[in-house]
Prior knowledge:
By secondary structure, the chain is an all-alpha fold. The chain is about 65% helix and about 0% strand. The protein is built from 8 helices and no strands. The chain starts with a helix and ends in a 15-residue tail after the last helix.
Amino acid sequence: MLRAAAGHLSQVIRGSFGVTRVAAVQAVRNSSHSTETDAEFDARYEAYFNRADIDAWEARKAMNDLLGMDLVPEPKIVAAGLKACRRLNDYALAIRWLEGVKDSCGPHVNTIWPWMVQEIRPTLTELGVETPEELGYDQPELALKTVFEM
């Protein structure tokens, strides 16, 4: 309550002296925004994953950054990430990458994920990587049935 009263008092004092924060707000609103096109974005991540000297931390960081964005990566980026996992000899990371991409499909997983698997199937076959569904990871192994399933 004291904090609310102090905040209200500071607003009254600022208003009486004519002090405003408009300049600071305008500076933040007018800060530079990225003007990168979708093609440039895809090329940047594809080139990042295709680096010969990429290490495990960098691959995980890039994958985490991509999965944290509000987008589904293009199949060429997913394929480049899978090839980076092969160069790092990290099969588990490849499976987690595919699980993350599937999760980023959101409510449209039934339409986007089959298309994604169709597009990256040649890479999956070339690298010997199976999808999470082919490994049985889409169904829990030891889960108990709920009362609604009995």
